[in-house]
Amino acid sequence: MLRSFPSAPAAGGKGYRNGMNPGGTVTSGAGGRLAGLLSSQVRARVLTWSLTHPDISFSLTEMSRALDLAVSSVQHECYKLLELGLYRVRRDGASRRYVLQAQDPLVPGLRDLVVAEVGLPVAIRDALIDLPGLSAATLLGDVPARRDATALVLIGELDLDTVELAHRRVCWLIDAPEDAVELVFFLPGDWLARRDAGHPLVRRLLDLSVRAAFGEVQADETGD
């Protein structure tokens, strides 16, 4: 279920958090065709990035920039993951682009291992933080997800394609059908304004427990 709201006058103040308690600690880590997958920290980082971005094809240069690693290190690990059958490669002009083989039977288990290792808040942050225009995101309610009991709240200057991509990535990470996670998004500043006004949807969302949250809404985003 997708809901959006027009811009509303923002509450006063120089800057806001998104009104929700993150409830998670940022950590780092990741994990493991067993001996081959578990033998390299760099490989774990590369695979973790792919598991939180299963929709993206990437070049070695793009991956190296995303992870702040040398291209040679990324190249070695991508070749190994290609050998193990977890990546496939396609040509884009002169460039080779890699993409996760999400249908491989090992991949769901690897995804769950990553989420268990780094924690759901960090996995969701890593999956969403590079989306253009996203200021804050919060996953609320039950996990495993249940209809009318789980919601994803997004705040930012977002186009519809980005909103839907964020929803797909979160549903992938928690292994939930998309119709089990209610999707709600606000323009910057609207969340606090509608919370302070006692909007019934916001009141209902605030009654749900926070599973993961990151980001904040700045004053200059609200129009103040």
Describe the structure.
The protein is an alpha/beta fold and 224 residues long. The protein has 2 domains: 2-26 and 120-222, no CATH class; 41-110, Arc Repressor Mutant, subunit A, CATH 1.10.10.10. The protein has helices spanning 41-52, 60-67, 71-83, 107-118, 120-128, 160-173, 190-196, 200-206, 219-222; strands at 2-4, 15-17, 87-92, 95-100, 134-141, 150-156, 182-186, 210-218. A 6-stranded mixed sheet has the order 1-7-6-5-8-2, with helices on both faces. A two-stranded antiparallel sheet has the order 3-4. A hairpin with an 8-residue loop joins strand 5 and strand 6 (150-156). The two termini are 31 Å apart.
Distance between the termini: 31 Å
Order of helical and strand elements: EEHHHEEHHEEHEHHEH
In what order do the strands lie side by side in the largest sheet? 1-7-6-5-8-2
Main beta sheet: 6 strands, mixed
Helix content range: 25-40%
Low-confidence stretches: 1-32, 219-224
Residue-averaged pLDDT: 82
Number of helices: 9
**Count of DSSP strands:** 8
Number of domains: 2
> Which structural class best describes the helix and strand composition?
alpha/beta
In one word, what is the shape?
A: elongated
Task: Evaluate the radius of gyration.
Answer: 19 Å
Proportion of beta-strand residues: 15-25%
